[in-house]
Amino acid sequence: MEIIFEKLEGKSLAYRMAMLVFAAFAVGGLISTWIVIEKGICVTGMTNRVPWGLQIVMAIYYIGLSAGSLVISGLYGVFGKQEYKPFARIAVWIAMLFLIAGMLSILTDQGRMDRVFVEPFVHFNLQSMFSINPILYSGHIFICVVYLWALFTERKRFTTIIATIAFGWAFCVHSGTGAIFGFGARVLYESPLLPVSFVTAAMASGTALMILLIVGLFKITKRYLDDRLILWLGQFLAVCILVVVYFLFIENAYRAYVVELRPAAMYYLFEGLHSILFWVGLILIGCVIPMFILFRKKTGQTIKWIVFASSLVVFGVICERYVIVLPGLTHPQEILTGMHITQSAIQEGVANYTISLAEIAQALGVFGVIGFLFLWGMKFFKLMPTEAVIYDQIGMIKRNEYQKRREAKSIKSSE
Fold it and tell me: Which domains does the chain have, with CATH numbers?
C-alpha cells in the first residue's frame, strides 16, 4: 500500500508554545555566546589546561546522534525494509539537523569564529583530523539534503544509491570524530578502539532517540503506529548496548593492564566527578538497566518499557561523551616519559573544570535552534506519515481495531 506523508498544521497551542520556548533558548544562547566572545573564556569553566568544555561534549554527542539516526532511514533506503519507510524522512531530517547542531556547538566554542569557515578549507592537512573532519561534516549535510530530495521525489533506485552513500559517510563522520581523540597524544585519549567505540555509541544513542521521537510524534499527533516496528528497534538497541559495553570493557581493561597507563586508568575509573558519571551515569543507568529491560521478555516486549530504556540510553551516552572529553584534559599530561618535572611553566597536577552558566546557556541555545528548525520543517515539509503499519494480516487487523476505537471515542465525545 502507498504511504502518505503530510505536513503538520502547526496551529495548536502546544506547537506555538514549543516554538516560543525553542526561540527563547536560541536567543539566550546567542546572548551568552556574545558575552563569552566579549569577555573571554574566563566567564566559562574552561582554562588553558582545559580548553574544551560542555560545548565540545555536546558537539560530539550531536554528531553521534546524527550518524545513529541514519541507521533508521538506512533500514528502508539501504536494506529495502518497506515497513520502515514511514520513518525515513524524519530520520534524515533530524540527522541533518543534529550535524548542524554539532557544528554550531563547535562554532560557539571558538574564540575566533571568523576562522572556522576558512582555515580548515584553505590550509588542508591530511595528517590532521581537525582538517579532515570539516570536509566530512559539510559533505554529510550535503548528502542528507540530496537524500531528502530523493525521498520526497520517490526516486527508488537513486534513493538506494544515495542512502548507501549516506550510511557509509555517516560511519566515516563519526569515525573521524572519534579519531580526533583516539589518534591524539594524551594518555586518556589515545586508543585505536575509540573511533569504533564512538560509532557503536552513536548507533545506540541514535536508535534510542529515534524510538523516543517516533513514539512521541505518533502519540501527540494521534496516528497509528504498529507496535512491532518499535519492538524490533528495541531488540536492535539492546544489541547495540551490548557492543558498547564490550568496547568499554576492552578499552579500560587495556588501560588497567599496561603498567604505564595504570595511574591514568585509576584516575579515570575511580577519581573525581567523571568516575561517578562513568559508573552510575554510563554503566548503570545507560547500559545495565536498559539491557535488563530490553533483554527481559516481559519488559522487552512492552512499548512503555522500551521508551523508558531508550531515555536511559540517551542520558547514558551524554555521560559517555563527557567522560571521553573532560578526564583526558584534566589529567596531567606526561610531557617527558619516565621523568619527574620539578619546575614548569605549565601547571602540574589534576586540573579543575566546572560547567558554567554561560556554557549551559550556549548548549540550550543550540538545542533551541535545532528544536525550532525541526518543528518548522514538520510544518512546511511532508515528513510525517499518516500511519506506520506492517501490511500483513496481523497489522491490518490491529490497524482496523485502532480505527474503530478512535471512531468510538469520537462519537462518544461528540455526544
Answer: 9-333+354-414 (1.20.1630.10)
